[in-house]
């Protein structure tokens, strides 16, 4: 930043470089305050002297906040816990100095030692450097950094959500410097050694780097309020910038408040130690526009440390920053201006506030650096430019608090003395913790013990006294006390009486009469008790903070404890509360609920639509296309267009054969993501309309941008040629069409205007949004050389990152992608033919996850990789089944900081990837590989060979067809439809309905002009040595001809349903006097249930399968011909034919015709029923009668063969065990009612079975002798069902050789 000023004497404009060290929002204001202070210290004597001093002081302010702050200090500014000897004093602990013994060393080498530096005034500290003691074996290998404004109430330096441990020295001379991730404002710095030289002891020299800091401070005692009055009575504000710093020990209080008469307001207040920002830019009187918006930030803000707040608002967009954590949000309602009246107040509610705003506490504590829209409020107060009459005692310094917190970990305890042999026990303390259980204090009585602890979030007291007999008293009070807030516990016990009070609330007080006498033991253990005793406490330790400890109604002198003058402690941090809220900021994404203990947190993702350790990964697919390729059928599904991105999932109606519909409920952002990912998106129907970005477009459906005409105006066929839309002429004709520009969708608002036409009426309809395809799913690139790669902007995934993609390759190694930082990096690669690796470094060292596939990955098939890294864990998954999970370390760096471009394919000399990558998504965003590949040498857009991986999805003979961005299934040569050829095509036949399919006539091709889709359906030759007929049917009527295939000779194939409902297959290929027949006498097939038939022939061998039963083979007699000569016509349902026809078929089975359902009929590669029902297929097919499309004849595609014991047709399937409900069985194992009912049911079942046996034996009785060959395998079959097919014992049939013509 540069600041320009002018020297009046010579008129020359001078340029001064502005040092960027101040963290304040208004740096120029603060800079001039600092410059003013430095000049006044020099006491200028004249204007010229002042100008010279001004230039000198300007130059003295460094351009970078990197001054050595400790070296210029006197020896007295350095203090320590102890000194080994006079030459080892703290004053010798200056970096690179050799005075004394060459540095500081304490008497004892343990974890209770510290070195402290008083910087004189508050400074901005940016770095710290350490050395060991000069020319010795003493150095510090690891340490913690504490800081404080007052030398009391220390705060540990936090980084990445943890109390940070800095790495130190490994010898006595080298300097190890650490730049702080975030600067701190402090006067006192304290270093706590954690590890030291194994050859020597603790040794330390130190330097602190930073720069000057200065700010006006105002102390708020709870009465005074700063009211900043506006220059105008009413302010209509479009943009706000407000900043301040505060520190307090109070958990509630108003920091700022402003309001207007129209209902607008802005308010910032502490509520239960959290910061609550409330903004209302206006609500209308009807309540349809509600402007109230509230956002919460931070936690544990009553810790008496400084916290920085910045509020930036432009219209409805707000940035709310607390201690470097920024929340971005948009206010509710539709108004942009904040209308305030008279004033805005700081520290409490103004006198002019509405009565409804009352009842809120004023702020108690300190504020500094208050700025409001460029005005330095604290400076104006100091200069008495603002009325401060409400303050009883206005001071510009921060008053010290007298609390002395104590920090306990799981191995800590604090022992304090009390009165011995007293008949009254009185202890009180304040505590804060996240753990639901822990020991608050424990004391041994003269003849018993008292234990006060936290159990499941409530305070419990156990008093156990052994006088004449053991007496145990249990009392408890409170709930949810492990919420991180300060809570006060007061226990008062004396003879025959005990009282427990929580937070001073009389309603929480529990009083009980105890039949015992109290005799205190004189020693109290707080936070832990690890001595062996006959009556140990239920809780051994406590993790959290305590303060204001009173024993025998006397405040414990913890300073004396720290100095070793009273009591003892172990592993306790005195004068510090290092509690950390691990749920702020909340790492649980997408609304996941965060819960925590002292050491960790966990996310509950129930009901969010996301999963994982931080609720990062969506449980839904991103589009209908992805559901489609998982084999899902049309229906309603949840989709998440941006995956792990901020937009949540919503429901859509997926049509797997066409365009899917987006219901009107999702937000505009959700719909927009769906639109941009789709190949094609239009509303069904659509003056002026608003798009997602509130852009106005003046065109209607069927037209385009900028034309300002309806479709009839473009085509010049409007009802009234004077107008460009039918509606303008007040006619009944409509203006309709599609909006096809994806960038203008979705439509958020439609505006219809009219002028000077009273009484005009119109009906407006906006149809549903329909989208097709998913360009992201098939977005792919082919890497053709080991050195080829694509580059993209740096991947932003500091605390949470997910990467997913598909790959196919014939190579056994290669880098999929890589992104580098200074030390951090992230990489995914194929390390071997069966191994995929995910490696990264966030500053804690290399972490590598590997998964091994059971089959080679270089098989040129698509494989899917999913990798995720967050603050809790790292996950790598391959093909949805091979997975490795690696928990994150409890301490250490958590942010992934990258700076280079993201390279896909190869980078940094790594082995390049050869093959295809598609659908590469990073944090829910699909990278456009195809677009980048178009301009990159060695990389081609798209990827061929999808059918090698997905061809198996094309079922029932469907052919996989390669597409540029995917594949499709060609169902032309099948009897099925749908995206994967799995949808049955069938129809319902009424009486007399028939379908006729004609093969090639004698003259060649049929007289059909358009034969583009006919050719695949035509046979390549007229004489068949093999054929296959497959179909399904259901009916309740007999007799009928199901399928009849004729020829120009006397050859034919017929499948008929006889009078008794049994099936008969008739083959006549010549050479035999009578047709070869196969009769299925075992069951009635006209039972209304769907049945499936598959008949295939290879010369003389016939294979027949019915429903789910095993196939059975038959053989044509030796005299039979093996060719089906000159196939002519396929008839379905009825025969209507001229020429020689088997009279048996006509006389017995052709009248009245088939009534029922036929489905998926296919003869070789001919699907006659599908050709009849699909208008888009040009084929030589005709229909007579009424044919209605229906799949009522379809049966399941695949049913596993049933065992004989479970076969419903098998009569010997006795002994089946049926499940029962164990919960309803009586305790002795016998359910009496069930036993009685079971007996009755058994009798009924036995009677029914006997009846069925009699009926079936009657139906299936042997009627005569076979006159055709018996089925192969029938002799060895266990039963008739196993063989399935037997021959018809009926009459001998003859063929009438005379030609007849039938008209049925």
TrEMBL record:
Its main location: other. Residues 217-398, 403-577, 779-943, 1004-1192 form the Laminin G domain. GO terms for molecular function: nucleic acid binding. GO terms for cellular component: membrane; paranodal junction. Disulfide bonds join 916-943. It is found in: Cell junction, Paranodal septate junction; Membrane. Keywords: Cell adhesion, Cell junction, Disulfide bond, EGF-like domain, Membrane, Phosphoprotein, Repeat, Signal, Transmembrane, Transmembrane helix. It comes from the Eukaryota. Pfam families: EGF, F5_F8_type_C, Laminin_G_2. The chain crosses the membrane at residues 1234-1256. Residues 579-616, 944-982 form the EGF-like domain. The keyword Repeat applies. Residues 615-662 form the Fibrinogen C-terminal domain. The keyword Metal-binding does not apply. Belongs to the neurexin family. This is Contactin-associated protein-like 2. It comes from Oncorhynchus tshawytscha (Chinook salmon). The gene is LOC112227377.
């Amino acid at each position: 930043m540069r600041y320009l000023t002018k020297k009046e004497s010579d008129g020359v404009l001078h340029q001064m470089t502005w040092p960027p060290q101040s963290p304040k929002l208004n740096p120029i204001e603060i800079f001039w305050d600092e410059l003013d202070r430095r000049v006044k210290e020099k006491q200028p004597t004249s204007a010229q002297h002042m100008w010279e001093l001004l230039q000198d002081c300007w130059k003295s302010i460094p351009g970078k906040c990197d001054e050595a702050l400790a070296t210029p200090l006197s020896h007295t500014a350095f203090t320590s816990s102890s000194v080994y000897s006079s030459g080892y004093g703290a004053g010798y602990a200056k970096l690179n100095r050799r005075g004394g013994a060459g540095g500081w060393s304490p008497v004892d080498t343990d974890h209770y030692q510290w070195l402290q530096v008083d910087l004189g005034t508050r400074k901005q500290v940016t770095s710290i450097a350490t050395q060991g003691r000069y020319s010795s074996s003493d150095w510090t290998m690891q340490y913690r950094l504490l800081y404080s404004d007052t030398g009391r109430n220390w705060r540990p330096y936090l980084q990445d959500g943890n109390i940070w441990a800095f790495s130190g020295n490994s010898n006595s001379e080298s300097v190890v410097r650490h730049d702080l991730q975030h600067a701190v404002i402090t006067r006192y710095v304290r270093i706590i050694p954690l590890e030291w030289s194994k050859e020597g002891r603790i040794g330390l020299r130190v330097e602190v780097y930073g720069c000057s800091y200065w700010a006006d401070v105002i102390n708020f005692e709870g009465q005074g309020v700063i009211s900043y009055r506006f220059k105008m009575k009413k302010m209509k504000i479009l943009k706000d910038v407000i900043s301040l710093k505060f520190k307090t020990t109070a958990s509630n209080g108003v920091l700022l408040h402003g309001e207007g008469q129209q209902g607008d307001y802005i308010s910032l207040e502490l509520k239960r130690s959290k910061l609550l920002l409330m903004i209302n830019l206006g609500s209308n009187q009807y309540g349809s526009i509600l402007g109230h918006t509230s956002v919460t930030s931070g936690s544990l803000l009553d810790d008496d440390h400084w916290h920085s707040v910045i509020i930036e608002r432009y219209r409805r967009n707000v940035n709310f920053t607390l201690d470097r954590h920024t929340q971005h949000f948009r206010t509710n309602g539709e108004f942009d201006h904040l209308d305030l009246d008279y004033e805005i107040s700081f520290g409490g509610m103004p006198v002019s506030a509405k009565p409804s705003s009352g009842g809120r506490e004023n702020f108690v504590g300190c504020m500094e650096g208050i700025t409001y829209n460029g005005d330095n409020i604290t400076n104006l107060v100091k200069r008495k430019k603002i009325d401060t009459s409400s303050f009883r005692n206005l001071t510009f310094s921060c008053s010290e608090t007298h609390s002395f917190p104590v920090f306990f970990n799981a191995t800590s305890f604090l022992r304090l003395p009390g009165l011995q042999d007293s008949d009254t026990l009185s202890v009180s303390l304040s505590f804060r913790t996240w753990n639901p259980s822990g020991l608050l204090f424990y004391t041994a009585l003269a003849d018993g013990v008292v234990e006060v602890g936290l159990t499941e979030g409530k305070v419990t007291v156990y008093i156990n006294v052994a006088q004449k007999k053991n007496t145990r008293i249990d009392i408890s009070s409170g709930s949810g006390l492990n919420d991180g807030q300060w809570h006060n516990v007061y226990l008062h016990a004396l003879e025959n009486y005990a009282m427990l009070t929580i937070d001073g609330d009389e309603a929480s007080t529990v009083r009980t009469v105890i039949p015992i006498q109290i005799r205190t033991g004189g020693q109290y253990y707080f936070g832990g008790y690890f001595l062996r005793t006959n009556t140990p406490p239920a809780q051994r330790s406590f993790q959290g903070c305590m303060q204001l400890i009173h024993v025998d109604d006397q405040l414990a002198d913890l300073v004396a404890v720290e100095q070793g003058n009273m009591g003892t402690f172990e592993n306790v941090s005195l004068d510090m509360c290092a509690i950390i809220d691990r749920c702020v900021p909340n790492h649980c994404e997408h609304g996941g609920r965060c819960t925590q203990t002292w050491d960790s947190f966990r996310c509950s993702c129930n009901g969010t639509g996301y999963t994982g350790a931080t609720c990062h990964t969506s449980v839904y697919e991103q589009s209908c296309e992805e559901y489609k390729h998982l084999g899902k059928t049309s229906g309603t599904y949840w989709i998440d267009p941006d995956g792990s991105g901020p937009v949540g999932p919503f429901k859509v109606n997926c049509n797997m054969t066409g365009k899917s519909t987006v219901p009107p409920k999702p937000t505009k952002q959700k719909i927009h993501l769906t639109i941009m990912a789709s190949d094609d998106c239009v509303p069904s129907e659509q003056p002026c309309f608003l798009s997602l970005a509130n852009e106005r477009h003046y065109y209607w459906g069927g037209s385009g941008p900028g034309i300002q005409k309806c479709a009839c105006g473009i085509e010049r066929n409007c009802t009234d040629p004077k107008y460009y839309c039918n509606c303008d002429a007040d006619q009944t004709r409509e203006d309709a069409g599609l909006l096809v520009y994806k960038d203008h969708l979705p439509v958020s608002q439609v505006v219809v205007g009219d002028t000077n036409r009273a009484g005009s009426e119109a009906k407006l309809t906006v149809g549903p949004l329909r989208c097709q395809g998913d360009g992201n799913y098939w977005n792919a690139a082919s890497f053709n050389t080991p050195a080829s790669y694509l580059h993209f902007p740096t991947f932003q995934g500091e605390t949470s990152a997910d990467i997913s993609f598909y790959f196919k390759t014939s190579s056994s190694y290669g880098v999929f992608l890589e992104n580098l930082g200074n030390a951090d990096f992230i990489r995914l690669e194929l390390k071997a033919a069966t191994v995929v690796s995910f490696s990264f470094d966030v500053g804690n060292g290399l972490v590598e996850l590997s998964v091994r596939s059971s089959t080679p990955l270089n098989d040129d098939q698509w494989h899917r990789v999913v990798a995720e890294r967050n603050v809790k864990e790292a996950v790598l998954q391959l093909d949805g089944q091979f997975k490795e999970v690696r928990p994150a370390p409890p301490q250490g760096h958590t942010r992934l900081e990258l700076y280079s471009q993201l390279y896909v394919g190869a980078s940094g000399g790594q082995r390049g990837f050869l093959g295809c990558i598609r659908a590469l998504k990073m944090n829910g965003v699909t990278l456009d590989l195809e677009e980048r590949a178009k301009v990159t040498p060695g990389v081609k857009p798209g990827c061929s060979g999808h059918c090698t991986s997905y061809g198996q999805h094309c079922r029932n003979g469907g052919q996989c067809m390669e597409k540029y961005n995917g594949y499709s299934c060609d169902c032309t040569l099948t009897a099925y439809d749908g995206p994967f050829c799995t949808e049955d095509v069938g129809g319902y036949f009424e009486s007399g309905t028939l379908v006729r399919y004609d093969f090639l006539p004698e003259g060649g091709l049929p007289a059909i002009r358009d034969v583009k889709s006919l050719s695949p359906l035509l046979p390549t030759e007229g004489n068949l040595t093999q054929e296959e007929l497959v179909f399904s049917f259901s009916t309740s009527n007999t007799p009928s001809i199901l399928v009849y295939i004729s020829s120009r000779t006397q050859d034919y194939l017929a499948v008929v349903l006889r009078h008794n409902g049994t099936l008969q297959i008739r083959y006549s290929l010549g050479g035999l006097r009578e047709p070869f027949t196969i009769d299925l006498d075992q069951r009635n097939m006209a039972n209304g249930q769907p049945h499936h038939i598959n008949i295939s022939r290879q010369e003389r061998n016939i294979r027949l399968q019915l429903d789910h039963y095993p196939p059975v083979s038959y053989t044509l007699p030796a005299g039979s011909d093996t060719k089906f000569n000159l196939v002519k016509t396929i008839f379905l349902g009825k025969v209507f034919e001229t020429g020689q026809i088997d009279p048996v078929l006509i006389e017995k089975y052709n009248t009245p015709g088939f009534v029922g359902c036929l489905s998926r009929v296919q003869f070789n590669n001919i699907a006659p029923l599908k050709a009849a029902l699909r208008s888009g297929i040009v084929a030589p097919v005709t229909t007579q009668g009424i044919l209605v499309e229906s799949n009522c004849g379809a049966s399941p595609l695949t049913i596993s063969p049933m065992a004989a014991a479970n076969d419903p047709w098998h009569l010997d399937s006795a002994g089946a065990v049926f499940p029962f409900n164990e919960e309803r069985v009586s305790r002795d194992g016998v359910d009496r009612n069930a036993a009685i009912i079971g007996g009755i049911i058994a009798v009924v079942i036995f009677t029914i079975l006997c009846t069925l046996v009699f009926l079936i034996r009657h139906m299936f009785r042997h009627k005569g002798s076979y006159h055709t060959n018996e089925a192969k395998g029938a002799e060895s079959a266990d039963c008739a069902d196993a063989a399935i097919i037997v021959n018809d014992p009926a009459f001998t049939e003859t063929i009438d050789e005379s030609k007849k013509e039938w008209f049925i």
